[in-house]
Please model this.
Amino acid sequence: MTTPEPLNFTTQIVHADRWGGAEHGAIHKPIHTSVQYGYERVEDLIAVFQGTAKGGFNYARQGTPTTAALEAKITQMEGGTGTVCFATGMAGICAIFLTLLKAGDHLVASRFVFGNTNSVLGTLADLGIEVSTVDVTDSAEVAAALRPNTRMVFVETIANPGTQIPDLAAIGQLCRDRGLLYVVDNTVASPYLFRPAAVGAGLVVNSLTKSIAGQGGALGGAVTDTGLFDWSAYPNIFAAYRKGDARGWGLQQLRKKGLRDMGATLSSQAAHQIALGAETLALRMDRTSATALALAQWLEQQPGVARVLYPMLPSHPQHARAQQWLRAGSWLLSFELADPSRCMEFCNRLRLPIKATGLADTRTLIIPVAHTIFWEAGPAVRASMGIADGMIRLSVGLEDPADLIADLAQALA
Ligand SMILES: *Cc1c(COP(=O)(O)O)cnc(C)c1O
Model:
């Protein structure tokens, strides 16, 4: 059955499995647990190995029919040409860096990135890859950092935890002009709020653990090719993958080197759970974004709160950009108390937000950032990332907004 076009976001996701041909009439894609895939004719096995067969599986480290069905859904959501799934978002990010960069290359990365991504940047420097971290809210800083050996620019759509929004379109233009691979981590926004293809991204990263799975019950990651980058001009594609249509070269190398060699494979069980979560992505993003905006507006009026960081507040430094590109502001909201020494007491008085790391669960999660996820980074790095000692991050869940506001009010009192 072929896909009837055009379908809107959620319709597309909930019917996606049928277009590939439902197995035994199963409404949901089955969980395939076979590690081995066999063929009647050895020629068919050879075709799978040599990549001349369309689709086809050989060993589950490189994917199964269940992970492939999820990859197809994410490709549709991001408006891309293909996707490779990984065991976690970090596995996807590491696969991009380690399979597409070489010693002597230069990477320009956002200074405002997820803490573990920041940690990987340090590892890359030790492997001989030069890394510059810049304030990507200003594209002039990115332009000034470029060198003759720059290969890639890496940003997050809505940075965690400071909610900075890069100059997404201007950086895209810069990358197009210079032939650079533009990688956008779209984890917080998700393809429902924003598609990085719209600003010229070549690769899009999603930690499926967060917005897309959305229930705090499965880890996963995905890298999607938007089809906008010219892989034939990219020097780091191995000779073995410089065959056939150049549009597939990047993902082919990511699958072979990132999954086959490095082995951070998404299980079929997790892929199934993530696919179920993806069906309610739009509903959850609408709900949590509306609640987060209500909380942000309320917090901004409280004398006990010094600063609120939320893209859809007019006070946000990149508010105009957020309005231009994002459908809504997402579940990520950070704020600072007027008296940072009250941070622990405030968190402890809250009854609903759960003191935990993690993002995009169905329950609201709260964490003091400097003392936990950015503790290892140290004070100098925290200061350069705009993380104040009293910064508190909320991942807003599905609770009724009035209950959350009442709880915040009693804790602030
Ligand atoms: C959580 C997160 C990641 C890493 O994803 P995992 O699935 O936890 O490995 C990457 N980028 C951002 C922006 C994240 O929030």
